[in-house]
Amino acid sequence: MSDINDAAEPIEKTLFEAPPMGEQERMVEAILFASADPVSVAELTARMPHGADPAEALVTLRKRYDGRGVNLVRVGDAYAMRTAPDLGHLMRKETVETRKLSRAAIETLAIVAYHQPVTRAEIEEIRGVAVSRGTVDQLLELEWIRLGRRRMTPGRPVTFVVTETFLDHFGLESARDLPGLKELRSAGLLDSRPSPGLTPADEAEDDGQIGQSELFED
Amino acid sequence: MSDINDAAEPIEKTLFEAPPMGEQERMVEAILFASADPVSVAELTARMPHGADPAEALVTLRKRYDGRGVNLVRVGDAYAMRTAPDLGHLMRKETVETRKLSRAAIETLAIVAYHQPVTRAEIEEIRGVAVSRGTVDQLLELEWIRLGRRRMTPGRPVTFVVTETFLDHFGLESARDLPGLKELRSAGLLDSRPSPGLTPADEAEDDGQIGQSELFED
Amino acid sequence: MPDDWEDDARLAPLDRMAAEALIVDVDGFEGPLDLLLTLSRTQKVDLRRVSVLQLAEQYLVFVAQAQMLRIELAADYLVMAAWLAYLKSRLLLPPEPGADGPSAEDLAAHLAFQLERLSAMRDAAARLMARDQRGRDFFVRGIPEDVMRHRKITYSATLLDLMRAYARIRTKDEFRPFVMDRNHVFTMEQALDRMRGLIGYAGDWADLTSFIPDGWDINPMRRRSSTAAHFAAMLEMAKAGQVDIRQGDTFAPIQIKRREAR
């Protein structure tokens, strides 16, 4: 949480008295309730009066909503109010029919999530098949993946990473909370293991330089 | 509140055990939160498990949100969650953008500053191009120029002068503090090539049309 | 055909059924790796201990059958088949002493790794999709309140901007007399008219400066302008073949004479 505190540290504390914590909690509550999308601590700070510390208010507010019908959840660096997942059956009326994702799209999404930042060539190597433009486009359109930094290898290929919208959709606090991530990593299945010489896909140009250290960097 | 109780009176109570009141409250909370429109008691009853008493849950839930950042309010025959009225100001976001003045505006401003009081026709004569209404309006709106006395010439045209706000913005004590042509030249801001046949002494002559005596009157 | 039947007969009935099912379904596979993963399931072992040799054979049988049934296989299936045939031979033969490159065991291990990784990613994808999802299991605020955005624009300008702007206008201003003041300018057209008239009277060589009219030789600006105009007019006439030009030395007076008509 230290990063949150840093972000919320007001630069000038002198000019106005910050509102009492109870009031700050009400303000955070009102702002989060009003927004369908997660709100970052920085934005909360910007919208609240001078000297307010939304990070602290978030902690107490989160406790207050613990076990309620609506919960305060963390999404990446932002926070949002969401109905408790166990009450989903009451909300069928609100369900938005989402397009069925193809198997290729689901697998590609999982590979981006678990291997990010990942290049298209790496996705293709893992799936053993070419990734169609439409698959990537669909995930980009859903705003579940976005372009990351270019890889510093010959050709400077673009990489893909998952977005906050992705985290929000799957109720994840961060990409570190992906199910089974630790097990996959300790089994070495997230390594970019260079193929020994000739390989069927002949993907000599792309792998090897991924560097595990780059995974899940912020 | 009697109407609520009437509407919520369950007709058959026998088939299933109704969920405990705490659970019912959570359900009402989640449904109200997620609904796009206010929800009536009848609709709550229809969506909640058999035997539930949303009217009672609404009463406790309303108390729970009393004084919070979000309140449970009654809208006609239905209920909804709304931001506490005193926090409405948080739903506004001020963004401050800093822009550079356009070339036309800064030139017009400079002419007003150096030649005040100056008429629009004079500004146009000095700039050599027409001055758009928008440019003058923008400077008036910024309160950097204001209307001065009317010129005692045919048509009695209005004049423009610079304001206190202008002096304040540019850190000047008075318009007399503006650097003169010689200073501009020695600062390298004026093209120092003297035009043929024109001696520095001639410079005074074209100021003459503007009415030298009128310059910098207050 | 008999050969093919013989091949087929070597397969265990279960394997044959599996292979036939696969053939029917060839369009359902997402590439050779997907097919290999499916084939490996028939071994019913941990993917780490999968027999790549056995897998290679299964794959080659699959491809052979597909070809027998005249099913068009995509190129990458055939590339994989060629590679697996190569790997199979490498696995069966003793390693050549002093051979370069990775060993057959390394290649087999990497293939097993690829299969395990693909399988793990599929499981991960399934687990991801099984999570509570927004809009299906949990919901956002149904009546989001729009944040009213008030955009406040402040304009900035510094004293230097102001001075620069003024300097810009004044610089323009200073050139104005030069443009406006036509009475100090003698144009080439004027000089040309004048010289055409005069040249006929001057039968012999005459100094160019003698053509300059009275009143244009004292004021330096007028003198410069008229000299330039007459010089240009002279060149124009020389080009038209109307005059000859001569000059004794550098900076010596320029003399002109009408060219005799032939």
Task: Describe what you observe in this structure.
- The complex is a heterotrimer, with 2 copies of chain A (218 residues) and 1 copy of chain C (262 residues).
- Chain A is of the alpha+beta class and 218 residues long.
- Chain A has helices at 2-8, 21-34, 41-47, 54-64, 103-115, 120-127, 133-141, 164-169, 181-186, and strands at 39-40, 70-75, 78-83, 118-119, 145-147, 159-162.
- In chain A, helix 2 (21-34) packs across helix 4.
- Helix content of chain C is 55%, strand content 8%.
- The longest helix of chain C is centred in the middle third of the chain and has 26 residues, at 104-129.
- At the A-C interface, strand 3, helix 5 and helix 6 of A face helix 3, helix 5 and helix 6 of C.
- Strand 4 of chain B pairs parallel with strand 1 (148-156) of chain C, so a sheet runs across the interface.
Total number of helices of chain A: 9
H-E order of chain A = HHEHHEEHEHHEEHH
Report the order of strands and helices of chain C: HHHHHHEHHHEHEE
N→C terminal distance of chain A: 15 Å
Helical content class of chain A: 25-40%
Strand content of chain C: 5-15%
Shape of chain A: elongated
Distance between the termini of chain C: 107 Å
Biggest sheet statistics of chain C: 3 strands, antiparallel
Chain pair sharing the greatest interface? A-C, 52 and 48 residues
Number of E-type strands of chain C: 4
